[in-house]
Specification:
Distance between the termini: 32 Å
CATH class of the largest domain: Mainly Alpha
Order of helices and strands: HHHHHHHHHHHHH
CATH superfamily of the largest domain: MetI-like
Strand content: under 5%
Number of strands: 0
Helix content: over 70%
Structural class: mainly alpha
Mean pLDDT: 84
Length: 276
């Protein structure tokens, strides 16, 4: 039975209305509160500000919240994590896609089990302490790499299986070594999935509070989300919701820009890697 014309016209409007409530209302609350003076922002609400002062609020959030230091720490953690996830994920996915032994299949199943099993935070922190990596950037990089490697391997393995093996066989006949085949053939064809994995890891790691709180614990190596937590918990922004929301807006801008620029690659990479 075909849907009625009224339903066909009303369904997009219903979806847009739900999206506006779920996303638009919180976003509007953050934006309008970040532009209000302290007196109007004591109790955050959806009313537009009577007196706008976004420039002052954002400047105070950057200066008083030590935002530049937090952004540098986030970059020093997120960028190496992304690089390691891509390199290790692509290499492992190539093996999993081309080898068919039982051992390889078992290793692949164990690897992608990380998609379903959350990391044991207490155990991870204890292990990092044993290796002297607790409260350090290398320790945080290791945690992010382990967390998101399963996702990277899953999508890349599915994508590599769609690549004809004859391309690699022809390169071997011409005398190409495995490393050259991987760099010259596999990696260029993996660009859509690499773009997707890059954006996903960046989005998750950039906004992570939970794992960074346990691994880094704050201090001079605090990332942006932890830095915001420290500033707020130290009562620097006590009832100063306009500065807290201004910090949130500035912290989100880099990842919003990345997502808007590369959203098509995210969709194409997910569909290419998930379907054999």
């Amino acid at each position: 039975m075909n849907p009625s014309p009224l339903w066909r016209l009303g369904r997009p409007a219903l979806v847009l209305a739900i999206a506006a409530l779920a996303v638009g209302v919180p976003l509007w609350l953050v934006l309008v509160t970040s532009a209000k003076p302290q007196g109007e922002a004591v109790t955050p609400d959806l009313r537009p500000p009577d007196h706008r002062q976004p420039a002052e609020n954002y400047a105070d959030a950057v200066g008083q919240g030590e935002m530049l230091r937090g952004m540098l720490n986030s970059l020093l953690v997120v960028i190496p994590s992304v690089v390691l996830v891509l390199i290790l994920g692509a290499g492992a996915a190539w093996v999993f896609a081309r080898r068919t032994s039982r051992l390889v299949s078992a290793a692949y199943a164990l690897t992608i089990s990380g998609l379903l099993l959350p990391p044991a935070v207490i155990t991870v922190v204890m292990e990092l302490r044993q290796f002297g990596l607790a409260n350090t950037r290398p320790g945080m990089i290791a945690v992010y790499t382990g967390m998101y490697l399963s996702t990277s391997i899953f999508f890349m393995t599915g994508f590599i299986r769609t690549i004809p093996a004859e391309l690699e066989e022809a390169a071997r006949v011409d005398g190409a070594k495995p490393l050259r085949i991987f760099v010259r053939i596999i990696l260029p064809l993996l660009r859509p999935v690499i773009a997707t994995a890059t954006i996903m890891v960046m989005l998750y790691a950039w906004s992570d509070v939970f794992y960074a709180f346990f691994v880094l614990g704050g201090g001079d190596v605090a990332t942006l989300p932890i830095n915001l937590y420290q500033v707020a918990s130290a009562q620097l922004y006590l009832n100063n919701w306009h500065l807290v929301f201004a910090y949130v807006v500035l912290m989100s801008l880099p990842m919003v820009a990345v997502f808007l620029v590369a959203q098509r690659k995210i969709v194409s990479g997910i569909t290419s890697g998930a379907v054999k």
